[in-house]
Predict the structure.
Amino acid sequence: MNENLAEAIKLIEEGHHEEGLKRIEKLEEKSDDETKRTIAELYFELGLVDRSVMIVEELMFQYPDHGELFAFAAECYSELGKEDEAIEMLTSINLGDPAYIQAQLLLADLYESQGLEEVAEKKLLDAIKNEPNNAVLQFGLGEFYLNRGDYQQSISYYKQAIHQGNLPKDLPIQPQLKLAEAFSITGQFEDALIYYREGLEDKENPDGLFGYGYTSLQVEDYETAVKTFVRLLEMDPDYTSVYPYLAKAYVAQKMLDQATEILEEGIKKDEFNEELYLELAKLQFSKGRYLEGKGFLEKVIALNPSNVSAVKELLIYFDNEEDYEGMLDLIRFLDDYGEYDPLYERFRGKALMEEDDVAGAVEAYEAAIASLAHDESILEEAALTFLAAGRKDKGIILLEELLTLQPHRYDIEERLIELK
């Protein structure tokens, strides 16, 4: 690298951006073409894509047969939101050009980002027909199918790419870790763990560690999960999505104080993370600290009334405490936000029944059983509510359904005989 350019880069790395950029601008005016290409790449990395484009367009004019320049120009245009220009650049790179494979991968990314998945897939499949043993293309297809949710296809191509053994060293993530991710998503946890270990042995990275810890948690290897998550937080304390999972691993090992501590630490990093408050609430309930747990659930719902898990936990709390006024206040609050779940209607019906609003309870239970007809506890509550409202026929129907689900309930059988 040009010595003056190296000095300018060092200035930027040390935080002297303005001075470093001024030196680069001066160099740009009198540099050779190779140095200009390096400066264009540097501008791109710094987010100064407009400057990159100006240089690369000049170089393309001088070297019209250098496909890598056209591929780089396409990346610049894509960053600037000029997808059509980027596609035009990439489609001009012919088969046989060293940059052809890179062009097909970039084209596939562009088409995929535009929602043209079939076109993207065709580009990749056409390319691999010409070079069936190209590991980069195989890896690209693995990425494409993983993003699309076609996990078995992605596993096949990732395996082929790894088997080839000649992937570039500068890939953003090890292929073993991507294969492990696909295995983990499909529930093939043991296979996933093998490739996570292999990939992380080569080089650790936060996403790989998270995947390894999460998969260890699924197979109930809590010790490995804890060690892995702790290592991840040592590497990146701001990786906030790991805190609730580390807490779960601690809880599974009966390390409740450590679980509480890690959740509180996570909240300091991200005070708007609903999952952290939800896990803290469950933890407080498990310790018998019901008011503290209730407070954390209310915090979650204040942050996001759509968090059904938190709402259900709080409704169950109110039910256990026989706090029907609190239950109704919560449901009415959710009504104001347009939040709905059939289970909420079950709790509304129960609370209204306790407040002697039989008509309101009937209406609520009708809404609940329309979607939750196979929930045995709701059937019994609804049946008793309909009977209390004088709707004997409907009550009998629901009790018969309940008896079908619970044939050992002789008390229900006797009640049906009495009613009939």
Remarks:
- Residues 341-420 form a domain with the Serine Threonine Protein Phosphatase 5, Tetratricopeptide repeat fold (CATH 1.25.40.10).
